[in-house]
């Protein structure tokens, strides 16, 4: 992945620096409003990362010790960590062939202590959130959407995040839309929005930006124990430019993905689910039965000048979650052990894509691959 950054972003960042206001301020407010509109939400709360957005979402639901939150193990470890930050217990559920939780896999792990379900739109592939809501809402279980990778993806004809109770987004450089680091929490709930904005800024009753621009002396109060999860105006300035390019970026990635499908006809790859479209934030492929070991495949690709990486991690297999209780996770383990992610970036050339595809086909055929 290479972020699509250029002179427009550099100029926007420089303008923010020259303005003298570089902390959270007017550009953050503009970015929040524009991003929320783009994903079909009423409100946006810009924060320092998607991880902090997820933490705020769980915190806003007053979830804590003794509570359980269902999450996929097949996800970057921040998904489970955000639950742990509150003292609650993440409970791992399995995924289907799209890499996402389903109502069936979630229902197997629900208990009397389940307080929320955190569904991930994995690598930009939209999860079927309507079926999850149909399972959870009658039980009084809220559904949080981890949309870290999903800016520009669609679900049932609308942007992913539209209608979400709360959705968390990432602007890390591996995402389509980047601010370097940064994230966003979106919601339609005005009360959660007010509280989330307070929580991200130490619990202050009046934000620093409002205090300095108010024109009169204001003494703030600190209303609750909170956090420092702010985004800077420099980041937001870059984000506003990036947001204007999102449709272009998604269209280009989908064009490249379609070409990969043509170049790799015998390989099972990520594709659109029946209920939506993916932004192809990552292009994963399944290693077929009988293929060389994945480590050998990655080494063979590297020897041919292709930088690929392992598939999506499984949190329950990492040392941080050693011994953590979970049910059977067969699809999760197959996903993390038998997939890898191929290069995909906006300015990728036909020749580069052909190099990737031909290299993978050679390695899968065993050409020049030797096991240790």
From TrEMBL:
InterPro entries: DegT/StrS_aminotransferase, PyrdxlP-dep_Trfase, PyrdxlP-dep_Trfase_major, PyrdxlP-dep_Trfase_small
Active site (catalytic residues): 175 (proton acceptor)
Keyword Transferase assigned: yes
GO MF, one annotated term: pyridoxal phosphate binding
BP GO terms, sorted: polysaccharide biosynthetic process
Pfam family of the protein (one): DegT_DnrJ_EryC1
CDD domains xref list: AHBA_syn
Residue intervals passing through the bilayer: none
Source superkingdom: Bacteria
Signal peptide coordinates: none
PTM-bearing positions, type N6-(pyridoxal phosphate)lysine: 175
Keyword terms: Aminotransferase, Pyridoxal phosphate, Transferase
Cofactors required: pyridoxal 5'-phosphate
Similarity remark: Belongs to the DegT/DnrJ/EryC1 family.
Protein name: DegT/DnrJ/EryC1/StrS family aminotransferase
Organism of provenance: Lentzea tibetensis
């Amino acid at each position: 992945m290479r972020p699509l950054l250029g002179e427009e972003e550099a100029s926007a960042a420089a303008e923010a620096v020259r303005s003298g206001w570089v902390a959270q301020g007017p550009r953050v407010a503009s970015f929040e409003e524009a991003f929320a509109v783009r994903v079909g939400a009423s409100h946006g709360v810009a924060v320092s990362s998607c991880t902090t957005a997820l933490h705020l979402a769980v915190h806003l639901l007053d979830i804590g010790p003794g509570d359980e939150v269902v999450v996929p193990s097949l996800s970057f470890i921040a998904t489970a960590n955000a639950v742990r930050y509150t003292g609650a217990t993440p409970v791992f559920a399995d995924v289907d062939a799209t890499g996402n939780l389903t109502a069936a896999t979630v229902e197997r792990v629900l208990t009397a202590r389940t307080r929320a379900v955190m569904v991930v739109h994995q690598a930009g592939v939209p999860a079927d959130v309507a079926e999850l809501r149909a399972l959870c809402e009658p039980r009084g279980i809220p559904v949080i959407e981890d949309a870290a990778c999903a800016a520009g993806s669609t679900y049932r004809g609308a942007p992913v995040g539209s209608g979400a109770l709360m959705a968390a987004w990432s602007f890390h450089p591996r995402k389509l839309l980047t601010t370097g680091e940064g994230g966003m929490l979106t919601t339609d709930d005005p009360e959660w929005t007010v509280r989330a904005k307070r929580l991200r800024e130490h619990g202050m009753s009046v934000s620093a930006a409002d205090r300095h621009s108010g024109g009169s002396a204001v003494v703030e109060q600190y209303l609750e124990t909170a956090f420092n999860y702010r985004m800077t105006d420099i980041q937001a300035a870059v984000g506003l430019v990036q947001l204007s390019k999102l449709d272009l970026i998604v269209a280009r990635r989908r064009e490249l993905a379609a070409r990969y499908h043509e170049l790799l006809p015998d390989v099972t790859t990520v594709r659109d689910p029946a209920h939506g479209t993916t932004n192809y934030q990552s292009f994963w492929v399944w290693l077929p039965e009988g293929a060389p070991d994945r480590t050998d495949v990655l080494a063979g690709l590297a020897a041919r000048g292709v930088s690929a990486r392992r598939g999506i991690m499984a949190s329950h297999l990492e040392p941080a979650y050693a011994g953590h209780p979970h049910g059977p996770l067969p699809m999760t383990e197959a996903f993390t052990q038998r997939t890898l992610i191929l290069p995909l970036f906006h300015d990728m050339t036909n020749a580069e894509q052909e190099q990737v595809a031909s290299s993978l086909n050679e390695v899968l055929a065993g050409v020049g691959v030797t096991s240790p």
